[in-house]
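Hi support team,

I submitted a single chain yesterday and got back a structure, but I'm not sure I'm reading the token output correctly. Could someone confirm the output below corresponds to the sequence I sent? I've pasted both exactly as they appear in my results page.

Thanks,
R.
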Amino acid sequence: MLSISAGSDPGYLTKTVGAGTEHYYLRSIGLQGEPPGYWTGDGIADLGLSGEVSNEVFEDLYTDFIDPRKRDEMYARLAAIPHAEGSEEYAAAEKAIRKDCRLGEAPRNYEKAYEKRLATNLEKAEARAPMGVLSPEQVKA
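Hi R., thanks for writing in. Yes, this is the structure output for that exact sequence:
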């Protein structure tokens, strides 16, 4: 059994299921690949899931926390956005639709948080530096 928590990469499982790429572990089942998984657990029925795991539903659920019961509705709404992909209007509409179809809070984007902290710390260091300029060595540190 594979346990997955928030922040896990569902691609780790879905890229190897049925592909037969992990020969070391699959010798006992004739190098045919990992058999497909089945939804199990106390909350599975509440999410409208049963039977064999669908890679697409699995990735939406564990990557973006998309409610499986609202998944089809979400993709229909995304396809109906009247703005050009890549535009600010499209991005805002997409964000709102995904928020409506999400279970709980959005996954945290740690890259943005890191970049923000780095920029703040560099500003503070520059303020303390002689003449307000950091050397390349100081920036790297």
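A quick pointer for reading it: Residues 65-130 form one domain. Let us know if anything else looks off.

Best,
Support desk
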